[in-house]
Amino acid sequence: MKKLAPLLLFVLLLGFFVLLVRIERVKADSPIYIRPDGSIDPTSAPIERVGNLYTLAGNLSTGLVIQRGNMLLDGNGYMINGSGSGNGVNVQTTINVQIQNLTIQNVNYGVFIDSSPGTIILGNTIAGNTYGVLIDSSPDTGILGNTITSGSYGILIDLSSNVQILGNTIVGDTYGVLIRESPTSIVSINQIHTTMYSLLVEGSELSHYLHSIDVTNLVNGKPIYYLTNQTNLTLNPVSHPEIGYLALVNCSNVQVENLTLVNDHHGLLIAYSKSLTITNNLFADNTYGLQIVSSENATITNNLFANNTYGLQITASANLPIINNPFTNNTYGLQITSSESLTITNNLFADNSYGLQIVSSKSSIITNSLFRNNTYGLHITSSPYSTVSTNQIVANEYGAYYDNSSHTTLSKNNITNNENGAYLLDSHHSTITANTLVNDGGISLQEFCRNNTVIENFIENCSGEAIYFGWYSERNTASNNTITNSTYGVRVHVSSDHTISGNKIANCTETGIHIFDSSRNVVSRNAIDNCGRGSRMSKCWRTTFSDNTITNCSLEGLLAGGGVYYDNILRNRISNCQDGIYFDDSAWVPWRASTCVDNTISNCTRGIRSNRATITISGNTITNCQSGIWSAQDNSIKISGNDISNIVQHGIYIAGNRYTCIISDNRITDCSQSGIWLGARATVSNNVVNNCYNAFWLQGRSGSILSGNAMSNSWTGVGIDSSRDNQFVHNNFLNNTYHAYVQTPDYPNLWDNGCEGNYWSGFDVTDVDPDAIGDIPYIIDGNNTDHYPLIAPSTSFNTAYGYAVFFVSNSTISNLNFSLSSALQPLEATLKFNVAGAMGTQGYVRVSIPKDLINGSYLVRFNGVIITDVTFPRVRELVCQSDIYTYFYIEYAHSDHVIEISGTTVIPEFPSHVILPLFMSATLLAAVVFRRKYS
Fold first, then answer.
1. Average model confidence (pLDDT) for the chain?
2. Across residues 523-527, what is the average pLDDT?
3. Is 673 exposed, middle or buried (0-12, 13-18, 19+ CB in 10 A)?
């Protein structure tokens, strides 16, 4: 027996499984079919057939599908009682079927007529279903004398013409009758009882709305007024004391006034009508308070739209003045689609999800309205040429939102306390002007906004950006706006070709103008005051930042960092900032150099600061700062033509560089420490440094070249600490307490180029030769000697070809010119200049000419006459071992003279961009192999 127990258990389980399967198959019974040939499938179904008459002989628990035409189904008082899904009776793709005397309940669709014209549904009870009757693509159908009680839809007619709905009682929780794109329906003597929506008519052309729906239809005991083709009507509580439903189709000259239209799908439907006046009505608790379709010249005034899904919806209509209406607590207060030339003025939009939404419409005018406490105050999408002006837009999540809308105007609005003020997305050629935005999200142009203008707005207390151009937007303009007390004044982010000009920006906690990851923007003529940073550019290229005034910033006036290249910073006026202009971690490579030119900077900690940048700094005026130009950490930098004065520390400070810097033609005065402080290798030429503690100070890094500089009236002309192999030539040391001071005397430096050295004022030296070179050396210490001191100050002339000519003279030299004559082969080059001095004295000039500039057989003309070394005035070519220069010494009696030195040139063989490096290398070589004049 123990051995049989497992076998018995297995048999019991198998039997139970089979029972489960059979139970499931009973539950999944298929519908009963009346096939196209008239047969009944399955044949066991309780349906009796006599010819074309099919009569139920019992109740059905499953649906019935009719595929045969020209037949009558008689329920005979029986019912189809479903399980909550499927169809009661489904007529499929046939003709002329009649269904009568049947009760249908507990299914999804009570009766579903699909592509079967001529069907008659007569005297049935259809109860407890989701949909009572659905007619789809089945013209000439009749729904007659039925009682229809449904959960959602009583009768739904879709794409079916000439349907007759007569004498039915319809009770529904949601929709009584829905007619969609179905022309010429006849609806009469129906009783509709619904807690929500009695009648819904939808369509895309006039014929879809032209139905015969008369007043014998009652909604909750009140008549339906579905008025078609009417003129010259007045509808009010006197003429129409009770209204179950109201529609105007193809009507004209109708006035609707003082009505209360509530708790339905439509409060009022107007379709294909004109010349209407809708005034002083209440539209509340409807799906559509008032829906207007394809109509024109309707005036809508002084109505209240409250608690509707759509307060007022206007579709495909034109010329509708909408005046002085409150829209409150709707999902959509006023929605306009596919319409034109609507005027919306003096309305209230409050506490809606969308106050006013305009979709695919054009030329709307919205004025003098109040938008308050909506999710979207205005939402305008795909709608060109709208004008929004003189409105109050207050405390919305989005004040005015534009999406893909062009040629719009937003002007003279008061936009306050919105999370987002004016927000544009993928919109172009629009104007935002003369608005006031306070405590607001500002003006934001996002994602492909192009060619928009933001002008003359007043923006205050924005939590983020007052004006924002972002995410691939292009060619927008922000000009003449006044911005104060915001986080950012104007911010440009991942976009290009914008113009930001003439704005007044003050008291921004972060940055006045911030440009990030953007290109080819122009920032000009803005006034920025008392911000964290005046302006910031990062990951930017080809930006022009010019003619701006930046004052009183706690950090930088302008910060350019994080990959900035090809940018031009021009003619700005910056004062009272930590750093006037700061280049931080900008592009290093020379071909991505930015320029900083002709700016005026005062009263800053550092006038111009550079850190890991490739930059040209020229023509700037820097005064009353801690440091003038301050550079550290690997800069490729050119500093030229700047005017720096009244500096507490250093006029120019260069440290920590692995690139050679070029410092030339700067004027530096009144520095408490150094005029130029070098802790990096540099080429330093033609600078004028006056009245500093140290005119120049070289610290640590070796190998700099200093030529043509003037160091005057300072405690030390040049100070050197732990730096060697620097070269000094053609410099003028004038009236310094110590011309040169070497703190580490065992570090040798070069103080001449083997032919010429420097001028040292107060060093009385004879010139017996004569050649303008002193007869004894100028000794600084044992390792630092100028063997060829000049007997007069040196001056220089920079030609347009990158070469400098040097002069040592007791004359005044003027009118310097260098020219090439293309008429001669090889090319002839001529250096021409004037000399002048006191009559009765003897003059001289020593000229050092680069051999690449003028070469070959020289001719020297004095007042147009060729001179030699034989007669007076005379010229001597000096013998000096130099591969770089040819030296001439010219003597004459003082008066006003013109001197010309001519020869051939090799300039065309050398591109201009390689001349300077060649010159620097050759000069260093010449200095190493110089021939000393003195034994």
1. 90
2. 96
3. middle
For residue 586, give both structure tokens. Answer: 């900008």
Whole-angstrom distance, CA of residue 523 vs CA of residue 597: 15
Query: Which tens digit of pLDDT belongs to each residue from 554-582?
Result: 999 999 887 777 789 999 999 999 999 99
User: Token digits for 285?
Assistant: 């608790």
The Cα angle at residue 737 between residues 736 and 739, in degrees rounded to 5: 55
Can you list the alpha helix ranges (DSSP code H) found in 751-795?
Answer: none
Cβ atoms within 10 Å, residue 532: 17
User: Comparing C-alpha atoms, which of 503, 451, 502 is closest to residue 477?
Assistant: 451
Q: Which of 43-47, 581-585, 612-616 has the lowest mean pLDDT?
A: 612-616
**Closest alpha carbon to 408 in 397, 419, 396, 400:** 400
Compute how many other C-beta atoms are within 10 angstroms of the C-beta atom of residue 919. Answer: 18
Cis amide prior to 770 (ω within 30 degrees): yes
Q: Establish whether the linkage from the previous residue to 42 is cis, with ω within 30° of 0.
A: yes
599 burial level (CB within 10 Å; 0-12, 13-18, 19+): buried
The Cβ-side half-sphere exposure at 773, using a 13 Å CA radius, reads 26
Report the amino acid identity of residue 246: L
What is d(CA 298, CA 287) in angstroms, rounded to the nearest whole number?
21
Nearest Cα residue to 650 out of 667, 632, 674: 674
Q: What are phi and psi of 225, to 5 degrees?
A: -110, 95
- Mention every residue, 6+ apart, whose C-beta is less than 8 A from residue 703: 681, 725, 726
Compute the distance between CA of residue 696 and CA of residue 698 in angstroms, rounded to an integer: 7
Partnered with residue 269 across adjacent β-strands are 247, 291
First vs last C-alpha separation in the chain: 135
pLDDT at 924: 34
**DSSP for 209-275, written as a single string:** T--EE-TT-EETTEEEEEEES-EEEEESTTT-S--SEEEEES-EEEEEES-EEESSSEEEEEES-EE
Q: What is the pTM of this model?
A: 0.82
Is residue 457 within 8 A of residue 435, CB to CB? The reply is yes
Note the residue count of the chain.
935
Contacts of 759 (CB under 8 A, 6+ apart): 731, 732, 733, 734, 789, 790, 791, 792, 793, 794, 808
Residue reference for tokens 């990030």:
516
**H or E stretch covering 689:** strand 688-690
Residue-wise over 325-345: b if at least 16 C-beta within 10 A, else e? bbbbbbbbbbbbbbbbebbbb
Q: Which helix (H) or strand (E) holds 928?
A: helix 912-928
* Residue tagged 């066991």 (tokens): 44
| Confidence band for 907, pLDDT divided at 50, 70 and 90 | confident
Q: Is 50 exceeded by the pLDDT of residue 256?
A: yes
Can you tell me the distance from the alpha carbon of 401 to that of 630, in angstroms, rounded to the nearest whole number?
47
Q: Count CB neighbours of 461 within 10 A.
A: 17
Give the closest residue to 325 by CA, choosing from 314, 316, 315: 314
Q: Give me 571's structure tokens.
A: 């003619």
672: CB partners within 8 A, 6+ apart? 647, 648, 649, 692, 693
Question: Is the Cβ–Cβ distance between 349 and 327 less than 8 Å?
Answer: yes
- Looking at residue 29, its pLDDT comes to 63
CA 739 to chain centre: 57
Q: What is the DSSP letter of 855?
A: E
